[in-house]
Amino acid sequence: MCCVVSARRDAAAERERAMTGPPNRQVLADGTVLTMNVRRELLADAAIVVKGPLIAYVGPASHVRAEPGDVRVDCRGLLLMPGLVNAHTHTAMGIYRGLAEDRPRAGWAPARYALPHLEHAQPEDYYHGALVGAVEMLMNGVTTIADRGGFMDVIAEALHASGIRAVVAHTLHDVNRPLELDRARGVLARWGTDPHARVHAGLGPHAPDTCSDALLGQVRTLARETGARIFIHCAQSHPELEAVRARGYAGAVHCLNRNGLLGPDVVAAHCLYLEPDEIALLARTGTWVAHCPASNAKIEARTAPVAAMRRAGVGLALGTDWAPTNNAMDLFDEMKVAGLLGKVAADDAAALPVPHLLGMATIDGARALGLGGVIGSLEPGKRADIVALAMDELHLHPWHDAPANLVYAAKGRDVRHVWVDGRQLVRDRRPIHVDPAALLEETARIWRRLGAGPP
After folding, report:
1. Quick one: pLDDT at residue 5?
2. Nearest to 41 by CA among 402, 345, 322
3. How many CB atoms lie within 10 A of CB 350?
């Protein structure tokens, strides 16, 4: 596997050089800009000036004076907004899309999340899956992800090569499974925990039922030592609740609390099965929740009590989870699903208003990942993670309410251009730095080797 990673790292370096943005200013001119700043300003006939990886100016296009060497991008008819933040996903599993359909809840246990042919996958398959998944999300306007899983030492290299921004965490568990703490430490050593790095590392204990109390405590100690954020599944199934109750806890959140794994540096994914006192505990400790409505509906036929969490003051971000249970890695769709399911679950058509849903996918998602000062809004000094959507599609007209259109009408296919750290990665709906046809060909080759034949 070391040879594979070394070869892939060399390829990543080539892509990095190929993606290097122009040395001069980029002026994204004459578009409509949704800033997602504290005032949620929507600016018409506006411009964004990008210098290197940073945003230097956001405001009226008429105030921008041309400089020699400027690279001007005509954004007429486009809406510019912050890149979307996917707060919980497993990018490499995109190659298993369509292999987890219509299972009952019991179909996910005890060998939960088992997928056909998974046992035959090689490290290079995970690399390819991560590259494909990252490019898919970039084309859908997702510029930042929190990714956790096995083989993260390989997957992280692919994410770096893709150009996406990522917080990566190698999965840890020790209940009826081998503990891979050295591997997790290796990911931390390789990528560090600096939130300003485009790819950096966190810690990924799997869940309260698959991690012993001792391991959960060890994770908290390691987080203090390294400054890593913690990403964990929580309260996602009845078997999980049964396991933690057998250990003497009233619920999954209580288990995390007793072992020091609640707090503003923790992102708990799913949180489907919560009691009111657990919601209050999440709010009191400042713990973030990554809400994955499509995946939750597909696996558990349930949605998290997000309206109750919002009323209690719990910080909420949005995630797609993985392609086998989503199946489209489209955060625009996820905003709509979150809004509609949230209203139904709360029996309240006013639950989860549009500004809140849009925030979950942008600035609140950034804050959940510890990146609120880095990305999530279009403001001078922040990283230039920018998405440009076509405004002239029929399904988006008229533009009476831009945020509502983005939440309930827009799709990932409406994305035209994408920048991360000031580097344009998608132009006119095509990735610049990779060949989609080659990605599809490699996916087919993997499935032939796994014995399934081409899709």
Report:
1. 45
2. 402
3. 8
Alpha-carbon gap, residue 254 to 83, rounded angstroms: 34
Letter string b/e over residues 183-195, b meaning 16 or more CB atoms within 10 A of that residue's CB = bbeebbebbebeb
Return the residue matching tokens 């990886």: 53
Burial (CB < 10 A; 0-12, 13-18, 19+), residue 280, is middle
Token pair 């997702």 is found at 142
Tell me the domains of the chain and their CATH numbers: 13-82+379-431 (2.30.40.10), 84-368 (3.20.20.140)
Closest CA to 281 of 309, 259, 306, 302: 309
- Spatial CB neighbours of 208, under 8 Å, sequence gap ≥ 6: 216, 232, 234, 240, 243, 244, 249, 252, 255, 256
- Give the dihedral of Cα atoms 6, 12, 17, 18; nearest 10 deg: 140
Judging by DSSP bridges, how do beta strands 266-270 and 430-431 pair with one another?
A: unpaired
pTM: 0.95
Tens of pLDDT, residues 374-387: 999 999 999 999 99
Q: Is the pLDDT at 398 greater than 60, yes or no?
A: yes
Three-state DSSP state, 260: coil
How much of the chain is in helix, strand and coil states, percent to nearest 5? Answer: 40, 20, 35
Specify the residue for token string 């993985």. 322
CA distance 420 to 439: 21
Residue 97, token pair as written in the block: 């899309």
